Amino acid sequence: MNKTTDTRADNGIEYSSFSGWIERPTDFAPPLEGGITADVVVVGGGYLGMATALRLAERGVDVALLESEFCGWGAASRNAGYLTNTLAGDAQMLAAMHPWRLRRVIQFADGSVNYSDGLIDRLGIDCDYERTGNVIAAVTRGQLKRSQWNAQILANAGADAEFVDGKEFGLPTAFLGGIYERPGGLLNPGKYARGLRSALLNSQAKVFEHSPVGSIQPTSTGVTVTTARGRVHAERLVIANNAHSRDLAISPRNMTAPLWVTLVETEPIDPERLRETGWTSRVGISTHHLVLESFRITPRNTIIFGVRQPETARGVLGARTPDPGVVADLVRGFRARFPTLHDVAPQRAWGGWIAMTASWFPVAGEADKNIYYAVACNGHGLAQGPYLGSLLADRLCGDEVSDDLQAVWRARPRFAPSPASSPTAVRAAWRLDRFSDLLDRRVR
After folding, report:
1. Residue 342 in contact with residue 207, Cβ under 8 Å?
2. What distance in Å separates the CA atoms of residue 116 and residue 79, rounded to the nearest whole number?
């Protein structure tokens, strides 16, 4: 990591403005200078943008990608590393709000894991991938009942998921049971993003890093995108910068709500102490709270945990280090879930911006003539981003629209405000989660 932008607090935790998974690259692609033309210009170099540009290049399309920092700089290199078919939001709520779409979006989510799994093999990306599956776990008795109901809803809708007992399945003692989603597993997201970036830089795509977009202007023959030192004229444009799409005037209004989420990593833990927690399955775990808590073991036998208390956007979305108060709250949550590891010290913290949609589903569509958008985050962009990018690329190449792309396609670019855009709503969710934890402890 770049030590010039990192700090170490009095409690010994290193606060990083980038990621705890990987160091910054040194082989930057040049910034855009002067004027160029392309068939398609992609704005954003995360999973979705890189996969879109790579697929287009593989199919012989003249494509240019513009990234304000370097490809993989954002949430792509900063997330917890869950490759999962999980959908954001509670299954009961999703079934009530979107009864006719749920099965189709579940099919999209399953397809996302299969595609990303194959992409790792096809590109030969070494990202420490372990095909363990993941569990949405219950830590209260109320959550346990919801997990049983939701597992049935998901299974009935075609998801490869089942309810499991915590002890029998090998979950830590504090996790009573949950929904085991069999596809996917755990990986190093920094290495995965770096592998996609390497494949993209070695393709026929024109990649320009450190090239933030200044303006986007539709023209009679397509669209012109300007940066500080250059411009691209293309027939079509793809907006693929997720949380940062709100900074583009041409993006559909209310399409996304940015949230800053924080991760913390512990010091290495003796493998025997990890086994004593009951976590013999080593699957990735997220909780059944309104705002999830996530826990995973890394190949270096540390535990990375996070989210719990997301922060809404204030002003420009840029580089920042985690809030010490949020980190302290995350550590309290870790101590509560793993009391036998009370003496294990947190070593470093980092975070990143994710995009939340009002429906909790990924979305794609056409914002204006020849201007397309796609958002595949909602906390699960690692699997869904590359897949959605590839599907959109195929559509731009003239292929028939696939069922999976149709499942998330919006015919009109109109969006209601996301609850995640309200600081009051986000804080209320945190309070309700803590109240349910407290109530369960008292009842027990």
Report:
1. no
2. 16
pLDDT in tens, the chain (444 residues): 333 346 666 578 999 999 999 999 999 999 999 999 999 999 999 999 999 999 999 999 999 999 999 999 999 999 999 999 988 877 887 787 777 788 899 999 999 999 999 999 999 999 999 999 999 999 999 999 999 999 999 999 899 999 999 999 999 999 999 999 999 999 999 999 999 999 999 999 999 999 999 999 999 999 999 999 999 999 999 999 999 998 899 999 999 999 999 999 999 999 999 999 999 999 999 999 999 999 999 999 999 999 999 999 887 788 899 999 999 999 999 999 999 999 999 999 999 999 999 888 899 999 999 999 999 988 888 999 999 999 999 999 999 999 999 999 998 888 988 888 899 999 999 999 999 999 888 776
The half-sphere exposure of 291 on its side-chain side, counting CA atoms within 13 A, is: 26
**What single letter denotes the amino acid at residue 108?**
F
Predicted model pTM: 0.94
What Cα–Cα distance (Å) separates residue 412 from each residue in 24, 368, 409, 416?
A: 39, 10, 9, 12
244: number of Cβ within 10 Å: 24
